[in-house]
Model the fold of this input.
Amino acid sequence: MRLCIIIVFAVFYRVVDAQDTTKKNPLTFSGYVEVYYSYDLSNPDSHERPFFFYNFNRHNELNCNLGFLDANYATDYVRANFSLMAGTYAQYNLAGEQGLLKNVYEANAGFKLSRKKDVWLDAGIMPSHIGFESAIGKDCWTLSRSLCAENSPYYQSGVKLSYTSLNNKWYLSVKYLTGWQRIQRVPGNHTPAFGTQIGFKPSSNVTLNWCTYAGNEQPDTMALWRYFNHLHGIFQLTEKFGITTGFDIGFQQHRDSLSKIDGMSNWYTPVVIFQFKPSAKIRIAARGEYYVDEDGVIIPTGTKNGFKTLGYSINLDYLPVENAMLRFEARGLSSEDKIFMLDNKPSTMNYFFTTSLAVSF
Done:
């Protein structure tokens, strides 16, 4: 009799235990590593590519652009992310942050404000709301980032209030931020910054986004307000062919020789990317872009015409397995002024080739 009771109890325990394992664990772990080799035909002795690139910017080296480990906690009403990273992305993008913060990719927490509506309040270090490209290469159509992505925020620190409609077609958010791309404030700056995002997905093949930013990037005594708009659309025209279009325009106050605000500087950049997928394992992309910043607000050159640069690239991706991507890219830049070096002489042209291997787990 005792043996029968023991057997029944054991079977019952195994069934309950098996059922428990089917429950979703709120705590998950993931990782990502992307290594690369880039060769710039200008062959810089410093092994650094032009200063306005913050990804894949080491010349003639086998290097890691980004590697991170992520812990994610998510329930119906609470969520949090914490990621530590390494690589040249972290080295160059977070050069102005405090020592212990240079290796933080994400550190944020949030909770749901409504039981019936998808409304969340999140705070901490989080990815930027601006743009269609991120630091994670596998999620981007091209190997290297566009000029608009490289020269707008990849990350932000602050508080975000967001709403997603029940049909998942609309996404709205407002942000109270530390700055343009900052965790640590500029000394003497106590000015808040603000961001907004409106996303609309009328169908599974179309994504539209409008993002804004407003803030001061200087000490309060020399405040210069910056106003920025980003728009993009992603159109999957067929199963194999897609187009991404984007446009950035920004304005910032500037001062005259007497340090009086006397007007606005502006910069803008259109970009278009075409992607073709001939098979499940092969992807091809081509990009065209034009970046204009005559007053050097974002990309200072000290030249007569400022930064006026046309960019173009061709990209080939191979996915041997679902979580790995081998990429090749050839890219060129053509500027109005001689802001590059080629054959040891100032040049209006810059050419470089990059290959990378990305693995997610």
Summary: The longest strand covers residues 261-276. The chain has three helices and 18 strands.
